[in-house]
């Protein structure tokens, strides 16, 4: 019923084209016949029922779990995630009509949408329809950056087994799979390397409203079956990490939804703002800049690289220069000698953060980043030696945050 565009390793840096489910999914316990074949058959049946034709392709991107390296990718540091079997799949076919038609297999939750082929297509404002902005951002990017002749549209049907708002990167999987649709429809597969694609997806996903760092999109694109990946960002590179055979990954969904877009102002985007404030304060206190408006370094990674410090030395800097208690807005304005807006105004979507918060945890954020960045490589080294690295969980990674917000928990346990 068509070909499968899948995120798996290939000898060249292009999105691979697969022709069977066996090339995509593990089948050690017969899960292809039990789970995946029925899933694709249902998708084809729904597609034919809606559009009257069969899909030509299936665009697929997996969700992910992050073993270690939590909230440090946008600070420039390496992370160590792994893709999961649950995935986002978009069935699609080209159309002679100058429209994009979008349906979801969950008809009751997502109503059908139709958009004209416009390079400057506007995002949807209605809250219940904003999920489609990830798809529109992908189309707009390809249309503007690659400048195809928009003579044909396409019909799509979206299906996902990645739990929504569960910390498994359903949004990144949707962004990646959405990008592949216009990429294939307009014939750019052989002109768009995966490494280049990753950064572009990160940029336009930010335009939707979340200041993401790049881990989720990178692992979805560069994942390999049965392995984790150490992902570095200067430049983007993905290295295979084999988890020791005496360790097992246990992934559990707490069933507590935390919508990334809805909580961006108080959680995700707030962390980005706190990192900027912490970085600026370290630079000021250490005599590297004279005014907070100076942007000598974009990330904690760039600061550490310039200083040539170890992670332990960076932690000492944090303890020396930043108080442990949270900063109020008034304290930040006094400490920096200027309004907080002057320091963060170039950060996308900073407005929602400033309007949603009265205090900021600069010490906790900076101390977590440097400590976590070091733990990533310690974990990698343990795996390389075949050693049991000890329990790893999100609990200690977010010790300064309220535990009721923990959504996805990951442990390494001895067999």
Compact overview of the structure:
This protein is α+β, with helices and mostly antiparallel strands. It has helices at 31-51, 133-145, 170-185, 194-208, 215-222, 268-285, 300-307, 311-321, 329-336, 340-344, 350-356, 362-384, 394-397, and strands spanning 3-5, 17-18, 57-68, 80-95, 99-104, 113-116, 153-160, 228-233, 236-241, 247-253, 327-328, 359-360, 408-414. The protein is globular and about 65 Å long.
Describe this structure in words.
By secondary structure, the protein is of the alpha+beta class. It is 38% helix and 20% strand. It has helices at 31-51, 133-145, 170-185, 194-208, 215-222, 268-285, 300-307, 311-321, 329-336, 340-344, 350-356, 362-384, 394-397, and strands at 3-5, 17-18, 57-68, 80-95, 99-104, 113-116, 153-160, 228-233, 236-241, 247-253, 327-328, 359-360, 408-414. The longest helix is centred in the last third of the chain and has 23 residues, at 362-384. It is globular. 43% of the residues are buried. Mean pLDDT is 85; it is low at 6-11 and 393-415.
Using only C-alpha atoms, the radius of gyration works out to: 22 Å
Overall pLDDT:
85
Residue stretches low in confidence (pLDDT < 50, at least 5 long) are 6-11, 393-415
Strand content: 15-25%
Tell me the helix content.
Answer: 25-40%
Given the helix and strand composition, which structural class is it?
alpha+beta
DSSP summary: helix tally: 13
How many distinct beta strands? 13
Distance between the termini: 40 Å
């Amino acid at each position: 019923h068509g070909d499968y565009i899948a995120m798996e390793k290939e000898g060249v840096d292009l999105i691979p084209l697969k022709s069977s489910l066996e090339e995509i999914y593990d089948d050690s316990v017969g899960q292809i016949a039990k789970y995946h074949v029925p899933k694709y058959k249902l998708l084809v049946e729904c597609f034919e029922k809606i559009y009257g034709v069969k899909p030509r392709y299936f665009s697929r991107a997996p969700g992910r779990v992050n073993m270690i390296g939590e909230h440090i990718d946008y600070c420039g540091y390496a992370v160590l995630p792994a893709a999961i079997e649950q995935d986002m799949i978009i069935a699609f076919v080209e159309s002679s009509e100058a429209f994009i038609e979008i349906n979801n297999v969950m008809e009751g939750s997502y109503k059908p949408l139709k958009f004209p082929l416009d390079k400057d297509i506007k995002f949807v404002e209605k809250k219940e329809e904003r999920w489609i902005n990830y798809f529109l951002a992908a189309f707009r990017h390809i249309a503007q950056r690659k400048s195809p002749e928009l003579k044909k549209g396409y019909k799509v049907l979206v299906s996902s087994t990645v739990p929504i708002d569960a910390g498994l990167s359903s949004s990144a999987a949707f962004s990646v799979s959405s990008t592949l649709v216009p990429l294939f429809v307009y014939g750019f597969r052989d002109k768009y390397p995966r490494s280049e694609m990753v950064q572009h997806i990160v940029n336009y996903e930010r335009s939707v409203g979340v200041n993401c760092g790049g881990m989720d999109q990178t692992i979805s694109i560069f994942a390999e079956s049965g392995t984790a990946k150490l992902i570095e960002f200067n430049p983007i590179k993905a290295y295979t990490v084999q988890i020791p055979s005496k360790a097992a990954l246990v992934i559990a969904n707490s069933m507590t939804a935390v919508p990334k877009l809805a909580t961006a102002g108080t959680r995700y985007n707030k962390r980005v703002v706190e990192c900027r404030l912490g970085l600026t304060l370290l630079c000021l206190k250490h005599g590297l800049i004279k005014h907070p408006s100076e942007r000598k370094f974009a990330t904690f990674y760039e600061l550490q690289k310039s200083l040539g410090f170890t992670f332990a030395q960076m932690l000492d800097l944090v303890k020396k220069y930043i108080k442990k208690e949270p900063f109020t807005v008034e304290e930040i304005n006094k400490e920096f000698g200027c309004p907080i807006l002057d320091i963060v105004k170039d950060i996308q979507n900073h407005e929602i953060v400033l309007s949603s918060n009265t205090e900021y945890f600069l010490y906790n954020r900076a101390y977590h980043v440097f400590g976590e960045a070091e733990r990533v490589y310690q974990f990698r080294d343990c795996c390389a030696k075949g050693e049991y690295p000890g329990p790893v969980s999100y609990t200690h990674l977010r010790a300064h945050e309220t535990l009721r917000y923990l959504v996805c928990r990951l442990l390494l346990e001895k067999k």
